[in-house]
Amino acid sequence: MASISALRQAIATNIATINGLRTASSIPEQVNPPVAVVYPAGAPVEFHLASANGSSQFYFEVMVIVGRADARTSQKELDEYISTTGTKSVFLAIELDRTLSGLAQDCVACRVSSYGSTEINNIEYLAATFQVDVIAA
Amino acid sequence: MAKYVVTQPSVTLNGTALTTNIAEATLTLSSAEVDVTNAGSGGFREVVGGLKSGELSLTIHRDAAAGSVDQTITALIGSLATAVVKPNGGTTGTSNNAFTAVVLVTNYTPVAGAIGDLAVATVTWPISGSWTIGTAAP
Lengths: 137, 138
Hints:
The structure holds 2 protein chains of 2 kinds.
Chain A: H1 4-15, E1 22-24, E2 35-50, E3 55-66, H2 71-81, H3 90-94, E4 106-120, E5 123-136
Parallel strand pairs in A: 1-2
Antiparallel strand pairs in A: 2-3, 3-5, 4-5
Chain B: E1 10-13, E2 16-17, E3 22-35, E4 47-61, H1 69-74, E5 80-86, E6 98-104, E7 120-134
Antiparallel strand pairs in B: 1-2, 1-5, 3-4, 4-7, 5-6, 6-7
């Protein structure tokens, strides 16, 4: 079975190709935006997709967090990260290497499921959450 | 044999293991039903077994890599191939019989699925001739 830690690290590695966007493959104690945090989704693994552990489905979320010092600037910045094109597209970065350096059979950024304010350690940020599906043995 | 949850049906085709790409395997062995009801049947229908037949149905996770399922199966379309199916893992035994039959590879769908779907192919191939049930490794 693929290691969840290795898969989330590999997703973070893909995202780290975006210049200026920090990444974390585990939930950090303190947020230093802009940052993309990769973590397992609520129901993270579905086993037995294929016979004899041929493949399982892993579900991850990637929360992209930006500062909210200026609402308009923050939204513009986050819009760039959730775009389907451009050098800051997290969607393109996640799917840059869909094998996740050979760890996965496929990796797909499915959707952005939320966009809005979020509070972390009593500080308000703007964040968008990507849903990422990975198929791996 | 104890009851079990299906997690590891084993399938080979002409000796090539397809197992880790198999999401579902169904081997159906059957006999035709021949009606022999007559005036002496006492008002009941009577039947006897006719020709035996069978089919192998598979749901396959597609893989286009060299030597993987797409290439293996596509090369066999229209041909007879020996299929060995075991219900619960690759080790043949008295509690995990090996069903061996020659199937006619009549179809495969190397391209299918909507955007976002897992790429799968569902096939049903008829058995040609007899089958064997073994408790020793074929």
